[in-house]
Amino acid sequence: MAKNILQKQDQNFASRSLPVVQRVLHKYPSIALSQPDPAWTSIRQICATQLFAPTKIKSFQPIILEEVRSMLRSIDAEGKQKSCARSKLHAAFSNIISMMPLGKKLQMNESNSTANASSHLTSLLVESIELSSIFYISDWVPWLAWMDLQGCERKSKVLGGKLQKVWTEIIDERRQYRNIVGPERKDTDFLDILISAFEAQDPLLEYEKITPILYDIFAGGTDTSSITVEWALAELISHPSKMKRVQDEIDEVVGNSRLVEQDDVQNIPYFQAVIKETMRLHPVIPFLVPRMAKQECRIEDFDIPANALTFINVWAIGGDENVWENPLDFSPERFLGSDFDIRGRHFELLPFGSGRRVCPGMLLGITNVNLMLACLLQAFHFEPDERLDKIEKFGFVMALANPLLLKASRRIPIHLLE
C-alpha cells in the first residue's frame, strides 16, 4: 500500500493539508506543508543545491565534528553523575543546524536577541513541535473551529508572534550587514542566498516568506536527529553485547588516535545496521507527514476520494511480523549482508518517506546521526541502567517518554576532545 501511494501514485498524493496550528504559526506554509507548485519546487532546488548537496554537507563536517567534541566534553566521564542525553543532543544539533544556514551557533543568535528568555529560539521550537503534536479536534471537525476547544489556535497566535520576532531580528541583522557591505558583497551562507532569491522576486521583501523555511530546517534537523540518537543509545545500553560489538568494530577500523569521520561509516557495517534497526523499530515520525489525494483514485480494492488525507504508518510496517522476523526485537544483525537502505527505495523501511515529498534534508540528517552516535560509542563506555525503560511517547514525533540518563566512562584519550 505504501509503495502504491508513494511511488505508483506519487504525483496524485503529493499535496498537503495545512493543520490549524501551522496555518496560524506561519503566514506562509513551510516547505514540508506547501503544495507542490512552482514556488515549492524552486525553494526545494535552492535547499538541495545550497544546503543539502553532498559537497555542501562534506564542507560542514569540521563544524559538525567541533560540536560533537563540545558535546562529548560536556559529559561527565567520571561516572559521578548521570547526563541527560536529550538536552545535550538537542543543544549540539541546534548549534550544528544554526551554523549551516546562519553561520552562527544558536546561542550567539539568542544572545543577540532583545527578546526575553522565554522567547529564545530553542524553547520556542520545542514548544511549537509539542503544540503541532496535539490531536487538534478542529482539524477533523472544522465546524467546531470557532470555539478553539483545546486552546491551540490561541497558543499558536502567541507562539507565532514570538517566533516571528526572533526570526525578524536575525534577518534584520543580516540585511543591515548586507547594506553596509554594499554591491561587492557575496552570498556567504544559506541565509544570504535565501534573501537574494526572494529580493530578486520582491524588492519589498516580506520576512514571513523566509521564516517558514528556516523553521523547517531548524525543527526538522534538531528534534528528529536528537531523538534517533537517543533511541539508539537506549537500545544499545539495554543490549550490552551489541554495544560491545559495535564499539569493537569502531576500534578496529578507526582506533583511538582520532575521532570517527563520515568516510569511516562505510567501513563499519554493524554500526550502519544499528542505525537502520533503530529507525525500523523507533521511527521518529511514525506516520510521516500526511499526504492528500489531489484527485479521486483507486488503490487496490479501495476508492479514495479527492482531498482524502493519507497516513503512511511506518511504525506499524516496522513492527509487522509478515514483513520482519521477530519484529519487536532489537536485532541489527538482520541488516548485515542485506541491501536495505533508508533512503526511500525499500518500502519496508521508510524513516524519511519516499517519492517527491521525501525529506529534503535526509542526507544531512543521516550524516549528523552517524557522526554523533559513532563518536559517542567510540568515546564512552555506558553502564546499563536497571531503571531504563523504553516506553514510547506518541505524537507527531515519537520519543522516549522519559529522557535517557547516561552514566559514562571515557574510552579514548581526552586530547581527542580538545
Automatic annotation (TrEMBL):
Cofactor(s) listed: heme
Q: Which GO terms describe its biological process?
A: secondary metabolite biosynthetic process
Residues noted as binding heme in the record, renumbered to the chain = 359
The record's keywords, sorted A to Z, are: Heme, Iron, Metal-binding, Monooxygenase, Oxidoreductase
Q: Which family does it belong to?
A: Belongs to the cytochrome P450 family.
Q: Write down what this protein is called.
A: Cytochrome P450
Q: Kindly indicate whether the keyword Membrane belongs to this entry.
A: no
Record-linked Gene3D superfamilies? Cytochrome P450
- What Gene Ontology terms describe what this protein does at the molecular function level? heme binding; iron ion binding; monooxygenase activity; oxidoreductase activity, acting on paired donors, with incorporation or reduction of molecular oxygen
InterPro entries recorded: Cyt_P450, Cyt_P450_CS, Cyt_P450_E_grp-I, Cyt_P450_sf
Q: Which organism is it from?
A: Ceratopteris richardii
Presence of the UniProt keyword RNA-binding in the record: no
